[in-house]
Amino acid sequence: MKKLKSTLPNMFFSLTLICIVAAAILASVNEITAGPIASTKQAALEAAIKAVTPKYDNNPVQEATSIVAADGDSLMLYPAKLGDSFVGVAIETRAIGYGGEMTILVGFDGNGTLVNYSILQHAETPGLGARAEKWFRTDKNKQRVIGRSMKKGTLTVTKDGGDVDAITAATITSRAFLKAINKAYNAYAKREADADSGATLQETNIFSSARKEGGIK
Amino acid sequence: MSNLKILINGIVKENPTFVLMLGMCPTLGTTSSALNGMAMGLATLFVLVCSNMAISLFKKLIPDAVRIPSFIVIIATFVTVVQMVMQGYFPELYKSLGLFIPLIVVNCIVLGRAESFAAKNGVIPSFFDGLGIGLGFTLALTLLGSLRELLGTGKFFSLSVYPDQYGSLLFVLAPGAFIVLGYLVAVMNKLIKSN
Amino acid sequence: MEYILIFIGAVFVNNVVLSQFLGICPFLGVSKKVETALGMGTAVTFVLTIATLVTFLVQNYVLNAYGLQYLQTISFILIIAALVQMVEIILKKVSPALYQALGVFLPLITTNCCILGVALLVIQKDYNLLQSVVYAISTALGFTLAIVIFAGIREQLSRTHVPKIMKGSPIALITAGLLAMAFMGFSGIV
């Protein structure tokens, strides 16, 4: 069979056929992989939430809500409960670090204590800012933030008068990291205060049940 | 050329990275570790083999004037398939390779081979050409990735070879990619020429 | 203000070539002379801006509207290929000298990873239309800056003595690495 000549109808026919076949292949592969893709994303988020909050038995992702931070940014909040009582939250927060945006999942318990954190995404320099994932949980020199009570005030690096030891030679990353955590806690605390004073129009489950149990303050 | 010769040609004489110097973007962008380099190489190999075979199979149906757009659509289809499969089954790799997976579609190697080999040869030789070039690319990327990971962090495929405080971070960053590749190309040139 | 940050970020801090590794093929291939480099940079700026605009609109009004996100790669690359064809035709009529000078590199802009790369990045970063266009223009200017500086250095290099084994690509790559190191000094500004 000789090669098709480059006449207009031939070109049109050939390209259209190729596009249709391509679209068909992609649509079917899309069908097959859509399930695994969605469940992998879900599983990753659930694993991250599990790592940063106290033990729970509800489904935080399903009961997720969004809270507004002081700078207008909208943050996702995942409540964790054991039975009916509220045990903590995981909040997805962000800040601009040295190389770009950092996304952190931070967990607080009902008393405002920082339970754990997980850096979901960052663009920090390997060996410097990228050490943030391990640095702030290492128990030496006041660098550990886990277990600190957020109620005592915002977290700040020692250079700025606070008491968290920044990563050596990566102060900008450290500041951004703490800024993100403070932002999350402040948004959460504000929401909680608003809920208590009846200021919010929509009440979420966690706050009403928490108030019933007297669990938050 | 026998099929075995075609295969070896792609790995040595016409090695896409060291000889043809094509596909530089992913070469520099995904080799911060040996595993990333190897994964990228294998993904590209898959696309190369599939698109070479598809184009060779349908070359009689594609009029000359529309060959480039047709090749692009075929290549893009396979790249999208790789994207979707990676997202669903290898999410960690998908995250670390990031933008460079869809960029396989503009990898000059794939379009180049389609144009210069698959459009003019049979399906089986095209398969071996795709395999050879793909293997050459994978080996080059794995080599570059290993060197950068070893020099930069003291690790090889995430296994510690020497303590990482003696590593020189520069190699894992952007400038390191250029510099290591520069020296590698110089060494490879000498080796391939003396062969 | 944020547009200035996007601009500085794209041109200096996260330079498309020296930090994000997009557009390396033309960077290494067209940078032997400053004039061709400048011409290439201009062509890329033009194509990149229009391509980002069109792909952004297609993503939002066609792909997202009909749930066809999996056709993103195919549709984007076809749009870019068509655009480059158009630019070729226009350039031939408007500036035949530049068309000649760019030669085979013009159709190669289609496979220039930075065009497709920026089109995809803009969707990933969730920019709105104006931010996307500013980002595209800034990226293209960053590309032009990098390629022109590089061409200047290479022109000088061609007049000096380079060891035989390093001639050509190896020394060019190492020079690019040093240039990348210099640009790293911009990090932390934004």
Give descriptors for this structure.
B: 195 residues, mainly alpha, two-stranded antiparallel ribbon, C: 190 residues, 8 helices, globular
Task: Describe what this molecule looks like in 3D.
The complex is a heterotrimer of chains A (217), B (195) and C (190). Chain A is an alpha+beta fold and 217 residues long. Chain A has helices at residues 8-52, 132-135, 171-196, 205-213; strands at 65-68, 74-82, 85-96, 101-109, 114-121. Chain A contains four helices and five strands; from the N terminus they run H-E-E-E-E-E-H-H-H. A five-stranded antiparallel sheet of chain A has the order 1-2-3-4-5, sandwiched between helices. Chain A starts with 7 loop residues before the first helix and ends with a helix. Chain B is globular. The mean pLDDT of chain B is 85. Chain C is globular, with a radius of gyration of 17 Å. Classes of the chains: A alpha+beta (217), B mainly alpha (195), C mainly alpha (190). Chains in contact: A-B, A-C, B-C. The interface between B and C is large, with 41 and 42 residues.
Q: Compute the gyration radius of chain A: what is it?
A: 24 Å
State the share of residues found in helices of chain C, binned by percent.
over 70%
Q: What is the N-to-C order of secondary-structure elements of chain C (H for helix, E for strand)? A: HHHHHHHH
Note the overall shape of chain C.
globular
Distance between the termini of chain C: 12 Å
Which class of secondary structure composition applies to the elements of chain A?
alpha+beta
Number of E-state strands of chain A: 5
Whole-number radius of gyration of chain C?
Answer: 17 Å
Q: Identify the strand order in the major beta sheet of chain A.
A: 1-2-3-4-5
